[in-house]
Write a structure and sequence with these properties.
globular, alpha+beta, about 25% strand, 12 helices, 5-stranded mixed β-sheet, about 350 residues, about 45% helix, 8-stranded antiparallel β-sheet, 13 strands, disordered C terminus
Length: about 350
């Protein structure tokens, strides 16, 4: 393992080598926006205190070298929610009951944890782009919000009911399409001033609602597992590739199943088990993401993009795009920020 440095050593080296590319305060709804580059990384950082006990942070950092940094969380008693858009983050914290000694948080997943008064080694990795949305909730804020609610995830109950709640770190699950939409809308908010701050808070609460719902469903819903053999899994991945190659004119479910040699119901159920959605739900998400990238590249007009991803009717495409991302295609083409996956 690369040499471990303390948090104080890290901050000292970072300050000595940092070049601040941009620092602004009270703009675009955030308290602080900072863009900088150091020997360790190039990073962008946004932070806003939305209300007492509720804050939002956005990190977009590209690491230049592996760093193992010893961090202490003494006196930090917030419940923390994370949504990883890309990259991965290693943590080593042996001896904490209920927490793995060594784990990674990875892109495409969301996490929830309460880890006060511990010391851990946080790892970043050379060449990795670490793009993260982090939400911090004071326990008093959480308790006030949850008063009178009868159904809560078990981990939230433990935080509300105990004076000294147990520590935990939960990989809640995949970032769902609904979470992805809320994250994209949060990063690409079109508002200014107080409206922007209100919009950011609404998206933060929406993300928490989606995450807590996902956690509750995982606790209460028995999983239906389809018995998939290796050959079935290969067929399902083959079906995904066929859908992508033929996104403009995709086959029907029956035709797709016939092409890959699997029963159409097993294909549908297996697809949901592997990818978290139906074959055509996956295709819709893929089309929308491709459309967003093409629009932001700026080389094609909206009609051409609609046709490229399989929409013959411009109105249908515009409606689907706005439902997915919260803005119309022309607004996306005119230069909104990119939300990396």
């Amino acid at each position: 393992m690369t040499k471990v440095i303390t948090g104080e050593q890290f901050e000292e080296i970072e300050q000595e080598t940092s070049v601040y590319l941009e620092v602004s305060h009270h703009t675009k709804g955030f308290d602080t926006i900072k863009k900088s580059e150091s020997i360790f990384s190039r990073n962008c950082y946004w932070i806003v205190q939305l209300r007492p006990g509720l804050s939002l942070e956005i990190f977009d950092e590209t690491s230049y070298q592996q760093v193992n940094c010893k961090i202490n969380h003494y006196g930090f008693y917030d419940l923390t929610s994370k949504f990883y858009l890309s990259g991965n983050h290693g943590v080593i914290c042996p001896g904490i009951p209920g927490v793995k000694d060594n784990y990674r948080e990875i892109g495409g997943k969301n996490y929830l944890f309460y880890l006060p008064d511990i010391e851990e080694i946080e790892q970043s990795f050379a060449g990795d782009r670490y793009h993260l949305i982090r939400i911090c909730l004071d326990l008093n804020f959480l308790k006030e919000f949850c008063i009178g609610l009868e159904i809560l995830p078990q981990k939230l109950n433990s935080l509300i009911e105990n004076d000294a709640p147990p520590r935990f770190h939960l990989p809640v699950g995949d970032i769902t399409p609904m979470m992805q939409t809320a994250l994209w809308q949060l990063v690409n908010s079109p508002y200014q001033g107080i409206a922007q701050k209100m919009y950011l808070e609404s998206k933060v609460l929406e993300l928490l609602a989606l995450q807590f719902t996902q956690l509750l469903e995982a606790e209460t819903t028995p999983k239906t597992i389809v018995n998939l053999k290796n050959k079935d899994i290969e067929s399902i991945y083959h079906a995904k590739e066929i859908l992508i190659r033929n996104q403009a004119h995709p086959p029907t479910l029956l035709d797709l199943a016939q092409q890959v040699g699997i029963h159409h119901m097993k294909l549908k159920k297996g697809f949901r088990q592997i990818f978290g959605t139906t074959p055509f739900g996956y295709l819709h998400e893929y089309r929308m993401e491709q459309a967003r990238q093409l629009l932001q590249a700026g080389n094609m007009n909206v009609t051409a993009v609609a046709n490229a991803v399989g929409y013959d009717h411009l109105g249908h495409f515009s409606t689907a795009f706005k439902r997915k991302f919260g803005i119309n295609p022309n607004s996306c083409r005119s230069g909104n920020k990119i939300l990396a996956k």
